[in-house]
Design goal:
CATH topology of one domain: Aminoglycoside 3'-phosphotransferase, Chain: A, domain 2
Mean pLDDT: 90
Helix content: 40-55%
Distance between the termini: 49 Å
Radius of gyration: 21 Å
CATH architecture of one domain: Alpha-Beta Complex
């Protein structure tokens, strides 16, 4: 099936149960295979070998997973073996199945909140041990804007072939306009653009139901290669507007209320006023990526991406309005999504 998998099995596992090897995930970032050996179910995760990506994703995930287990979390996976040189790790396979978007209920959201709170509490006791930030963690407002601006410029610079015109029109007239409107408004708000973000929490970073399994009405969580210390407002923002985490407005407000009152960290609630519209741009750009490329490299994907991105921004707009109204954020409300 895969020469690297065969090598790992021969060198580490010795033998596996016949017929148990199966690819269970092949996303944009990693390949994952299920195996059964020594009487238990396991997964082998292959990490990408990308010279342009210097993050120690394997090292972070292995360390973070061990740390959660050692601190008492039981609904996450144990590390069996890791090999940094060969860029793979073996974990105990979690029970359960993927939860579908249309199956997610408010009780699942509350369970996700509890997991976030447990990780937050663990952060209080591992401050000396955990010395790494989450992927793309920034602790100044300007740095967040700089990061999204770099993404926009990079995407606009790519050769999109026959799809260039339709893609660039959407990016420039929609995404870039939202960005510029928001940045201008933040710059005009006293001291906000250069504000330091002191609210910090331990975070799994790529948080959501896409990285969970459900078994006997309990959620189990995995995939911690981007974990570390992060700005609390970014963690909450990603929970709410990750395109794969469809959430109703009233549920979103309940999630925010729970996290505002129970997260042990400095205040972050006011910063949702600029983070939600800013990070909706980022998620649009992330969704442009497909396996080993971009949607504009596949003729069938181009129109679908633009349509989905537009629908996603409309959902974010409605959610943003509801949150601003409920929290009474003092931010001269402007409809950033209207062009």
């Amino acid at each position: 099936m895969n020469n690297q998998i065969d090598k790992i099995i021969n060198e580490h596992c010795g033998s596996i149960e016949k017929g148990s090897l199966k690819r269970i995930d092949s996303g944009n970032n990693s390949d994952v295979y299920a195996i059964k050996y020594k009487g238990y179910n396991a997964i082998i995760k292959l990490y990408p070998n990308d010279e342009n990506d210097t993050r120690d994703r394997l090292g972070v995930e292995v360390d973070f997973s061990k740390m959660l287990i050692e601190e008492g979390l039981k609904n996450t996976s144990r590390v069996i073996h890791a090999n940094k040189k060969e860029k793979y790790a073996i974990f105990h396979k979690l029970p359960g199945n993927k939860i579908k978007a249309n199956e997610i209920r408010s009780n699942h959201w509350l369970e996700l909140v509890e997991f976030v709170l447990e990780v937050n509490k663990i952060g209080l006791s591992v401050k000396d041990r955990c010395n790494y930030n989450a992927s793309e963690a920034f602790f100044c407002v300007k740095e967040h804007f700089d990061s999204i601006e770099q993404r926009l410029k990079y995407i606009l610079s790519l050769d999109k072939g026959n799809s260039k015109i339709e893609y660039d029109i959407f990016i420039q007239r929609k995404l870039l306009k939202i960005f510029n409107n928001l940045k201008e408004h933040v710059l005009q708000t006293n001291h906000l653009y250069n504000k330091l973000l002191i609210s910090k929490t331990l975070s799994v970073s790529d948080i959501g139901f896409h990285n969970s399994l459900i078994y006997k009405n309990k959620l189990y969580f995995y995939d911690f290669e981007y974990a570390g210390w992060d700005f609390s407002g970014k963690l909450v923002t990603d929970m709410l507007i990750n395109p794969r985490n469809l959430i109703r407005e009233e549920v979103a407000i309940n999630v925010i209320t729970e996290l505002e009152s129970r997260l042990i960290c400095d205040k972050w609630i006011e910063d949702l006023k600029w983070m939600i519209p800013l990070y909706s741009i980022k998620w649009c750009l992330i969704s442009m990526r497909i396996r080993k490329g971009y949607t504009f490299e596949d003729k069938t994907q181009g129109y679908i991406w633009i349509k989905n991105a537009n629908n996603y921004l409309n959902r974010c707009n409605l959610l943003y309005k509801a949150i601003c109204k409920h929290l009474k954020l003092d931010f001269e409300f402007r409809d950033f999504y209207t062009i």
